[in-house]
Structure formats: structure tokens, C-alpha cells
Write a structure and sequence with these properties.
Blueprint: E1 2-6, H1 24-35, E2 40-45, H2 65-71, H3 74-81, E3 84-85, E4 96-99, H4 104-107, H5 113-124, E5 129-132, E6 155-156, H6 161-166, H7 177-183, E7 187-188, E8 198-201, E9 204-207, H8 213-226
Parallel strand pairs: 1-2, 1-4, 2-3, 4-5, 5-9, 6-7
Antiparallel strand pairs: 8-9
Helix pairs in contact: 1-2, 1-8
């Protein structure tokens, strides 16, 4: 099995002087769910090379078993430093696509034409599409072969309005993910802030927050195994 993981290349948190990027846990936990199960993982980003890491995801209180493992994993770190450019990816060679979150995707991947085309290709081929935390934003402009938003009529989750308020970024982000998923016709669901929660609707799998990253990846893996 082969999974394409797509990470953000955006490192600026709106009009603030703070940095953003991808959230380490949301990359590391799924990465090991996949690789420990024998899945071949390829990493890509809009600009290629090393994607920016959200500095808040490297603080001591944000560390997990997966992030600590990643810190000692030279192979994984090399792969992260050498992501391929998104516009050079041939989707035919992959069985599924997975998007880790962090705030970065809100700015670059939501409207990235290459990302949208990849998602639409996987979707039209009946291959799983998964995203966690802020990354379900990448689905907002992707459409099904019928021309409807992919999320329309489907149960989805993602970083909630209350979680955005809790990190005090409601007025900084370009949009609130919960609101936008709902506006596109998605049946948005959530649990209490920071609790692990992932939902599957057909070939669409979404997770609510950083703590949901492993569960989201496991659901994707289960779908892949079931399709063999």
C-alpha cells in the first residue's frame, strides 16, 4: 500500500509576527501508523523541500510518543526535509492521500490548484481521502465528478470554533473551518474540545484536532486493508 501525505509550505500566521506551519503530532502519529503497518509513505508539499513546523507543536506540553520517536528518527527527518513538489506528484501510484493539519493549510492548501486536482483525482477513482484538524480545509474547494463540493451531504469534522477560540486565533485565521465545512453542505460533527474524534463517510475520513491524528490515520488504514 502506498499513501501520499501532503504538508503545508506556509509559515506565516496571518498578519501577526508569529510563525505557523504543520503540527508535528499530526504528521508523526499518522506516519508511524502507516509505516509500522508496512505502508510506503511519500511526502509532498507545495514548495517541496522541508515544510515549516509550527513552533507551538514543538513545546514540551505538545510532545507525544510519536513526536519523541520522530525526533530520534533520522530516516523520517530526512524524508521530511526532502518532500517532493506537489505539482510533480503522479497520483496514479498511490492508494490514498492524507493531509496533516496545523494552521498553515488554511492559507496555502485550501486554494492550491494542484492539491485540489489531486483530491479530485483520488475521489473520482474511489480512493480514500483523509485530513485531520485544520487540514479538512483542503476539501473546501474540491468537487466530485458531478460538480458538487466533496463534503456536501457528508459527515465531516475538523478543528472546531470553540477550539479556535481556545487558542485565541479566531480573529487571525482567514476563516473558521467549522463554519466553512457547514457552508459547503457538510454535516459537521464534533466532540468536546481536544478529545480524539474521527469520522468516516464513505471514502472521506476527517479528524477534529491534534489528538485525533492517530485515530484518523487508523481509520484510513482500515479502509485500505478492507479494499485489498
Amino acid at each position: 500500500m502506498k499513501v501520499l501525505m501532503v504538508l503545508t509550505s506556509h509559515d506565516k500566521l496571518g498578519d501577526t509576527d508569529h510563525k505557523t506551519g504543520f503540527w508535528v503530532e499530526e504528521f508523526a502519529a499518522p506516519y508511524y501508523v502507516f509505516t509500522d503497518s508496512g505502508v510506503e509513505v511519500t511526502l509532498a508539499s507545495p514548495k517541496g523541500g522541508k515544510p515549516p513546523i509550527d513552533p507551538n507543536s514543538t513545546t514540551p506540553d505538545a510532545q507525544t510518543e510519536a513526536t519523541e520517536r520522530f525526533d530520534k528518527d533520522e530516516t523520517a527527518q530526512h524524508k521530511l526535509k526532502t518532500t517532493c513538489k506537489l505539482d510533480e506528484v503522479d497520483p496514479e501510484g498511490f492508494d490514498a492521500i492524507f493531509y496533516p493539519g496545523g494552521h498553515g493549510p488554511l492559507w496555502d492548501l485550501t486554494n492550491n490548484e494542484h492539491s485540489i486536482k489531486l483530491i479530485e483525482h483520488f475521489w473520482s477513482q474511489g480512493k480514500p481521502v483523509a485530513a485531520v484538524c485544520h487540514a479538512p480545509a483542503v476539501l473546501l474547494n474540491a468537487k466530485s465528478p458531478s460538480g458538487d463540493p466533496i463534503v456536501q451531504g457528508r459527515t465531516v469534522t475538523g478543528f472546531s470554533n470553540s477550539e479556535e477560540a481556545a487558542v485565541e486565533l479566531t480573529e487571525v485565521v482567514p476563516f473558521l473551518l467549522e463554519d466553512e465545512l457547514t457552508a459547503k453542505g457538510g454535516h459537521y460533527r464534533k466532540v468536546d474540545d481536544w478529545e480524539s474524534y474521527a469520522v468516516q463517510d464513505g471514502m472521506l475520513i476527517t479528524g477534529q484536532n491534534p489528538g485525533s491524528s492517530e485515530q484518523t490515520a487508523q481509520r484510513l488504514l482500515d479502509v485500505l486493508r478492507a479494499s485489498l
